[in-house]
Amino acid sequence: MLGILSNDIGIDLGTANTLVFAKDKGIVLREPSVVAIYTATKKVCAVGIEAKKMLGRTPGNITAIRPMKEGVIADFEITEAMLRYFITKVNRAKTFIAPRIVVAVPSGITEVERRAVKDSAIRAGARDVVLLEEPMAAAIGVGLPIDEPAANMIIDIGGGTTEVAIISLAGVVFTKSIRTGGDEIDNAIITYMKRAYNLMIGERTAEEIKIRVGSAFPLEQERTLEVRGRDSVAGLPKTIKISSQEIREALADTMQSIVDLVRSALERCPPELSADLVDRGMVLAGGGAMIAGLDQLLSDATGLPVIVADDPLSAVANGTGMVLQELKFLMETISGSKG
Predict the structure, then answer these.
(1) Counting C-beta atoms within 10 Å of the first and last residue's C-beta, which end of the chain has fewer, N or C?
(2) Sign, Cα dihedral of 279, 285, 287, 288
(3) With bands split at pLDDT 50, 70 and 90, how would you rate the model's confidence at 175?
(4) In this structure, are residues 156 and 71 in contact, taking their beta carbons and an 8 Å threshold?
């Protein structure tokens, strides 16, 4: 009866963005994982889109915080406040019964970090919390036939982590993650701009550069972009023009670490499953999958076909939603995981 009356939800609690999937409705919320608080009182001023607009632009009495770092909770209280805000926002019609929540978490997190996520969700208003590993959620969300006796390989590049998993018979054969993702890419761009042009830029500008001219492989038509920031020597506003080729060089080390991760997973793959991947290839999901040419870079490095998911940003959230709708399937799929 509780299941019928409550508005059960799936949450992709990401370092950069949080997505919420409501049962029978699909993705109903997609907002940045940012909270603005009043510095003196620690009370929440804004959450999500409104808070992100404040990043790098707040007066002294307001601080904009990203409570998730490298895929895990860095600030327990702020994460709890953010979760409560999102849960309340999507659960207005049925607030008299607490929802059951499926939360996607990185596969490499510790037991303490898993407990922190669970406790945050319960204190934010969940009736029951089930943790689902992100690579499995992404594989389900993009529609891979994970229950077949054949290899399915998923690479999920989020804001804080990059994870690779080989899945067969609804179980994870091998998984590995590194704490490198969209944030690391943004930081590489910030460092490059400072080193090459003495130009200081913020997180939001770095993210815009990544989206508009970032690439992992030479493009047929190289792009350019005007960037505004502050001259670190003169201290005055400054505008420069950069090319996608420059940004590709700035991102080379980060892209190589992703290639190395994929290669190490392939080296650990059993021979029979390796044979399956020759035809099936691998699927890219997460926001990082949208970096131009990344599929080509991985394909050249491994010799395997690489497919970018139709909606890579929504893959994990869609996976949590599909699991919500099939609880029996959930129990079979993650029975071996610690949830």
Answers:
(1) N
(2) negative
(3) very high
(4) no
Residue 8 CA to residue 97 CA, distance in Å, equals: 10
Range of the domain at 126: 2-35+67-136+316-333
Q: Exposure of 259 by Cβ count < 10 A (0-12 exposed, 13-18 middle, 19+ buried)?
A: middle
* Averaged pLDDT of the chain: 89
Contact between residue 114 and residue 105 where contact means Cβ atoms under 8 Å apart: yes
Task: Give the span between the Cα atoms of 34 and 82, in whole angstroms.
Answer: 8
Tell me if the pTM is above 0.70.
yes
Say how many domains are in the chain: 3
The angle, 0 to 180 degrees and rounded to 10, between the axes of the packed helices 76-90 and 111-123 is: 50
How big is the chain by its Cα radius of gyration, in Å? 21
- The β-bridge partners of 174 are 166
Residue 293: both structure tokens together: 């040419």
The pLDDT tens digits of the residues spanning 29-66 come to 999 999 999 988 888 999 999 998 887 777 878 888 89
Tell me the CATH number at 97. Answer: 3.30.420.40
- Whether the Cβ atoms of residue 156 and residue 16 lie closer than 8 Å to each other: no
Q: Which two tokens stand for residue 178?
A: 């590194």
- Tokens 């939360």 appear where? 103
In a domain, 111, yes or no: yes
Tell me the angle at which helices 134-141 and 315-325 cross, rounded to the nearest 10 degrees. Answer: 80
Q: Read off the pLDDT of each residue in 129-139 and give the average, rounded to a whole number.
A: 92
Q: Quick one: which of 120, 166, 97, 139 has its CA closest to 18? A: 120
Counting beta carbons within 10 angstroms of the beta carbon of residue 221, is it exposed (0 to 12), middle (13 to 18) or buried (19 or more)?
A: exposed
Q: Rounded CA gap, 28 and 19, in Å?
A: 8
Q: Which two tokens stand for residue 317?
A: 């959230």
